[in-house]
Amino acid sequence: NLQTAALATHEVQIGNIGGATVLSAVAGGQAFRIIASPSNQLFYDLVARSDIKDGKDIRGKRIGVTSVGGTTWMAANLGLQHYGLDAGRDAVQINAIGNQSVLVQALESGSIDLAVLDPFLSRRLKPKGMKVMIEFAKVNIPFITTAVVTTASFLREHEDQVERFLRAFLEAQAFIAKPENKSAVLKTVAAKMKISDPASAEEGYQDMQIGIERKPYPSVEALRNIQKLMAPMNPKVASVKSEDVINARIIRRLDENGFIDALYDAKKR
Questions:
Q1: For residue range 28-45, what is the model confidence (pLDDT) as tens digits?
Q2: Closest CA to 149 of 16, 8, 245, 252
Q3: Which end is more exposed in the chain, N or C (fewer Cβ atoms within 10 Å of the end residue's Cβ)?
């Protein structure tokens, strides 16, 4: 991961990294600290072919993910747990197929029975008879998808700079969330993502609204969820103390002094 390497070598001081990547780095000896978690949920869907009606039908089936150990792989395992299933016990194969477009092709061709997909893609499969089994964003499974990360030394020596960064970050999130800024946000989404279709840009905008954590407190429980899944593949991860990786001091201060609430309440500004 380029951001992890850049943080480790002090080429950058703050990064936007997934919770699993942070745990791997800490297990490898890096003193990284999660200072905010703008995404504390999984934003994927578990999509199935039409013959799968409920959880018990998943037994003995094949689930496609992008890579073993990645976020979609973790989502697949958490999805099985949601239904009270276990991959080994219930003969469920979790297969690393490739990127999202490859997963869609495999699902449509019948090479796999289920796939963990972006909502953007799962919506396009519904008219083709596919069933969304789980919308992970709605089942509230704690999971740090995206974390704002710095090093322990930089946080200790330059906390004022970290706070200024977080203030700007929170202001950007509040701008995105406000309906009056929708036009500007849509233009930015379309330009940055190279989207020419207005309907697709609108879907991206709506997905962003679901994903915004107004008060992005990093969750120890969410990090432990990831840790449990990673530990069998990387035993060093099991020894990491999740509570030591998280430092919510600045977010808590910005919350308690009213800064965050004021961003969403024009009367307070």
A1: 999 999 999 998 888 899
A2: 16
A3: C
